[in-house]
Amino acid sequence: MVTIETTQNFIQLKSDKELNTQPKELVGMDLAAMRQFFKEIGEQPFRATQLYRAIYKHRQTSFEEITEFSKDLRTKLSSLSVVMQQQIDRKFNSQDGTRRYLFKLFDGREIESVWIPETERATICISSQVGCPLACEFCLTAQLKLKRNLSVGEIVGQVITVLSDVYGIKQPPDRQINIVMMGMGEPLLNYDNVTATIRLMSDMEGIAISTRHITLSTAGVVPRIYDLGKEEIRPKLAISLTGATDELRDRLMPINRRYPLKELLKACQEFPLKPREKITFEYVMLKGVTDSDVDARRLVKLLSGLQAKVNLIPHNPAEELPFESSSHERVLAFQQILVDSGLPAFIRRPRGQDIFAACGQLAAKSSTGM
Ligand code: SAH
Questions:
Q1: Alpha carbon of 161 to ligand 1 centroid (Å)
Q2: Contacts with 18 (C-beta within 8 Å, 6 or more apart), sequence order
Q3: From 204's CA, which of 19, 259, 275, 369 has a CA 20 to 30 Å away?
Q4: What is the pLDDT of residues 127-143, one digit of tens each?
Q5: What is the pLDDT of residue 16?
Q6: Confidence band, pLDDT 50/70/90 cuts, at residue 364
Q7: Ligand 1 binding pocket includes 112 (Cβ within 6 Å)
Q8: Whose CA is nearest to atom 18 of ligand 1?
Q9: pLDDT of 368 above 80
Q10: Listing from the earlier edge strand, what are the strands of the sheet with 279-285?
Q11: What does pLDDT average to over the chain?
């Protein structure tokens, strides 16, 4: 049996060897890694299964909450590790029910997640990087530039924390939860951590969100789209297109200079889809830039032959961004051209605009808080 005394001896031994090491963070580990950890600290492997369920299924994110463990074990674990280091720093509530969460990470960096409730489901929009390296001209996150990649624990921790803020611990969600990797960052530039996160989130013993309900959005990192297509456990794919010619896209989204439309669409063509599954193309409506009838017809032509649907995103303006939003009538007329040509097209209703939670607005603004 572990006593506090032996725990202290253990810490003594450990700290002689490993001075100044960070405590081990448990969130983000898969079951195999947890087993290994428990083995290293001289505990039974079945404890790993308990811990895994506690963190991922029941959202118990502090050792005090994990009452399945004895007090001694909790004391021992907390002397060697932490469940999760990130904290909700601020929370912003929109009139429409959307919530924006600002997280403070262990190193003081900030990221954001958004909770978007709808009638029968809810979507959590999560970040994959601190900032973003891609420099899309219409996106505020781009202005932060890339600070660093997020760890698996930092990505999956957003989902657990948001769900526990909404539902508390142990309580299963009352509706279908969707995950969209459309927050800060380019998920395919943090490939290993993002795919590991998807495996964790979709594990039915844990968070249990099926890959049918997880969407990864990319600005078009072509080689990684091929890699993703080869993954056994893969999410649904969304492509941020916003521009139907190389000329326009080169300007708006500089990644297009590296991976032009022809290559991007070839990767989409070859992406394995389930029956009836479609690739979503996100298209930001920028007044006088991307929203003409000619643009709409080009888009139809570009996507012909693909299992595609289009989400038209009204541009969310900001002082720092050199664009205006298209009028609602223009967006409707644009949509009509797509639909009349047999291309399914939907208009995304902006959510949480009043709290800077809408697409392209995630720039860790804490000054707008309520
Ligand atoms: N880097 C990935 C994940 C971010 S998704 C990607 O680009 O797909 C963020 C989405 O918000 C993208 O589809 C982008 O086109 C959209 N977006 C960016 N800035 C926007 C703005 N100002 N208004 C509306 N949508 C915007």
A1: 23
A2: none
A3: 275
A4: 999 999 999 999 999 99
A5: 42
A6: low
A7: no
A8: 360
A9: no
A10: 87-93, 99-104, 110-117, 121-125, 176-181, 214-218, 236-240, 279-285, 308-314, 345-347
A11: 92
Cα 55 to middle of ligand 1, angstroms: 31
What φ, ψ does residue 220 adopt, rounded to 5°? 120, 50
For residues 267 and 246, what is the distance between their CA atoms, to the nearest angstrom?
16
Q: Is 139 in the pocket of ligand 1 (CB under 6 A)?
A: yes
Residues 19, 188 contacting (CB under 8 angstroms) = no
6 has pLDDT over 50: no
Domains and CATH numbers, the chain: 23-82 (1.10.150.530), 87-355 (3.20.20.70)
Ligand 1 center–CA 241 separation, angstroms: 9
**Residue closest by Cα to atom 26 of ligand 1:** 360
d(CA 311, CA 296): 13
Residues labelled as active-site residues: 112, 359
Q: Determine whether the shortest distance from the Cβ of 360 to ligand 1 is under 6 A.
A: yes
Name the residue at shortest CA distance from atom 24 of ligand 1.
Answer: 315
| SS3 category, 253 | coil
